Amino acid sequence: MALKTSDKPAATPAQPPFTQTTVLELALYKLYTWQNNTYEQGKPYRFRNEDAMLLLGEQDLGRQVWKLYQPPKKREAPKHEIVDATRVVATRPVEDVGFGTLNKASGRIEVGTDDEIQDILERNEEGGGDVTV
């Protein structure tokens, strides 16, 4: 008695239809007719590799009629990240002229007391500098 075996023939791996093709687009003209077919600029067209090589070799006045198709790159909008600054406590600026205090009523800047001024004058007399009061 014979055993039944299911021997299936080895299937050849199917090649994708796009392995023998190249995608081109018009580089020079807005409309181009080749072998009774009209092509438009900006649209990708798939050709067999042999035809694509011939088309890439076509030139008009030294400029290529066809070029390889490059899919458009997606532009990413800049990300506007919001920085959390709620921990900052704003205070009103204090009037500071850098030295002394400003007396707004008299319009005079108080630099120091008479003792401080006398101390400065005595130091300058020793150093020989001029001081205007």
Question: How would you describe this structure to a colleague?
Answer:
This protein is α+β, with helices and mostly antiparallel strands and 133 residues long. The protein has a domain at 21-68. Helix content is 17%, strand content 23%. The protein has helices spanning 49-57, 114-127; strands spanning 21-26, 31-34, 37-40, 45-48, 59-60, 63-64, 66-68, 101-103, 108-110. A 3-stranded antiparallel beta sheet has the order 4-1-7. Strands 2-3 form a two-stranded antiparallel ribbon. Strands 5-6 form a two-stranded antiparallel sheet. A hairpin with a 2-residue loop joins strand 5 and strand 6 (63-64). The longest helix is centred in the last third of the chain and has 14 residues, at 114-127. The radius of gyration is 44 Å and the shape is elongated.
Give the SSE layout.
Blueprint: E1 21-26, E2 31-34, E3 37-40, E4 45-48, H1 49-57, E5 59-60, E6 63-64, E7 66-68, E8 101-103, E9 108-110, H2 114-127
Short key terms for the protein model shown above:
133 residues; 3-stranded antiparallel β-sheet
